[in-house]
Write a structure and sequence with these properties.
Strand content: 5-15%
Helix content: 25-40%
Shape: globular
Low-confidence stretches: 1-20
Strand order of the largest sheet: 4-10-9-8-7-5-6
Number of helices: 13
Structural class: alpha/beta
Mean pLDDT: 93
Length: 502
């Protein structure tokens, strides 16, 4: 059995049981020398409705607000570690992980087995009774946090977790105003739409009362930035004359943060919420030491500091388990989701005993949060990260990928920026490196479609959807990276040839 698990974890095991059918060989419409790494996992035979009927149901019965990727949307059937299979058996390298959610790999055997075992024992009780898994999981999860972050409230989604974190901040401080960065995404609920600052998510109805945004310290696209600003193996193409240990860009952005404190909010505030690396906005990183100084300024105003770890948590940044640790800060509240359950709907708010107690003054209840099933899944995910060495793999493979992508930036004028840390990567596309203007949407879409046609799935992000988001399952290998980079190279070459022919 141990050997079988080892094969599965390397992404090349054969699934037992079920009806199997062959993987289909790729017939890409895009010329490429890229060869997909081998995988002898055999998906089960697809036995549901035909593609066209699925499309019809989608159009008639599913909310149109749930938009799909690609001109011809994918109909996915099965997943295995870093791989996805469509209804015809075609295999794809998943570089987006269900929007930065499948951290340990699709259908990871350890998580799958733990879930199946709990399904046969107990699904649901609510928090009015004790069950073993919530205590066991709370102890295991909070042991990964520094003091005094030792109390957890389990919820079901990232939006719900951030909603609760904001509520806790206001209850605890008895203040109301909350600051966030422009370009931030903290959820789509009416409450979290306040700190969310991306226009596409704003629906023109009242939201965000008591929320103010401040300038995003983006050292690539913002007014200030240099060649030593960020905590990444790859820096911007912008130059600066900063000496060792000095960052003029950081100082300028801190002045903007102070300006927000002095002009947009009362003297006392409830808090400041920020992602350690912005996710939806395209893996935007801040200058080193910015968050440390910002946290101090917030606390001087009576506010608490909230770290939104929905995308950066659970080892994805490589060097640390939590994104906030890369900034040498300890928040007052931390929110978790996505990778916490590897695709299972769960989330958490981790905070101090004092802040958590503010919520206990009156009744606050969550029917599904912390269910027996969710807690077993969460514990199995933590075990898989440790046993498979996925944090270290994120650091090693992520650094390798960043450096390989940086070579493409140096080769192609439309690749403006390569940034990130671990397996939290963004590639920003521009018309040219001098203007840094976003590449037109139709051109970006063609590159994106070409990558899909060659077997690589990539996300999109940024205010203009100009950034490719690369955040794969953390089990990805360097051979997978070589394939993905070669595919991206082929798509860029095709774009360059097409532009030259016009």
């Amino acid at each position: 059995m141990a050997m079988g698990l080892g094969q599965l974890l390397r992404g090349c095991g054969r699934r037992l049981g079920g009806v199997a059918f062959r993987q289909q060989k790729w017939k890409s419409s895009v010329p490429t020398q890229a060869k997909m790494p081998p995988c002898d996992f055999v998906p089960e035979k697809y036995e549901s409705y035909p593609y066209e009927h699925m499309q019809k149901i989608r159009e008639q019965n599913i909310s149109p607000s749930l938009r799909m990727y690609y001109k011809k949307p994918l109909l996915l059937h099965q997943g295995h570690m870093q791989w996805l299979f469509d209804y015809e058996g075609r295999r794809y390298l998943d570089l987006f992980a269900g929007i930065v959610t499948v951290g340990v790999g699709h259908c990871h055997p350890k998580v799958t087995m733990a879930t199946q075992k709990q399904l046969a024992r107990l699904w649901h009780t609510t928090n009015i009774y004790m069950h073993p898994s919530i205590q066991e999981y709370a102890e295991k999860l909070t042991s990964l946090f520094p003091d005094p972050l030792k109390v957890v409230y389990l919820t079901n989604s990232g939006s719900e977790a951030n909603d609760l974190a904001m509520f806790m901040a206001r209850l605890y401080t008895r203040n109301f105003d909350i600051i966030s960065f422009r370009g931030a995404y903290h959820g789509g609920s009416p409450y979290t739409l306040g700190p969310t600052s991306i226009g596409l998510y704003k629906h023109g109805v009242a939201n965000g009362f008591g929320c103010s945004t401040t300038m995003l310290p983006d050292v690539f696209r913002g007014p200030w930035g240099g060649s030593h600003c960020r905590d990444s193996p790859v820096q911007t193409i912008r130059k600066c004359s900063c000496s060792e240990g000095v960052c003029c860009a950081k100082d300028q952005y801190i002045e903007q943060f102070k300006d927000t404190l002095n002009t947009s909010v009362p003297r006392s505030i409830a808090g400041f919420i920020a992602e350690p690396i912005q996710g939806v906005n395209g893996a935007v990183q801040y200058p080193r030491s910015f968050l440390k100084e910002a946290y101090q300024l917030v606390r001087e105003r009576g506010g608490v500091c909230i770290s939104d770890e929905v995308q950066t948590g659970f080892g994805r940044t490589g060097s640390h388990f939590w994104g906030f640790q890369t900034h040498d800060v300890v928040p007052d509240i931390v929110t978790l989701s996505k990778g916490i359950g590897n695709g299972f709907p769960m989330a958490a708010v981790v905070t101090t005993k004092e802040i958590a107690s503010s919520l206990a003054q009156n009744l606050h209840f969550n029917t599904f949060g912390g269910s027996p099933l969710a807690c077993v899944v969460g514990a199995a995910v933590l075990d898989a990260i440790e046993e498979d060495g996925l944090q270290k793999n994120s650091e090693d493979v992520g650094t390798y990928m960043l450096l390989e992508l940086a070579k493409l930036r140096d080769e192609f004028k439309i690749v403006g920026d390569v940034r990130g840390k671990g397996l939290m990567i963004g590639v920003e596309m521009v018309t040219d490196k001098d203007s840094r203007q976003p590449l037109p949407a139709e051109e970006i879409s063609q590159i994106w479609e070409d990558c899909r046609d060659m077997g690589v799935l990539i996300g999109r992000g940024g205010l203009y959807s100009q950034t490719f988001r690369i955040k794969p399952p953390m089990c990805i290998t360097k051979k997978d990276v070589d394939f993905a980079v070669e595919v991206f190279h082929s798509a860029l070459q095709r774009h360059t040839a097409g532009a030259a022919a016009k």
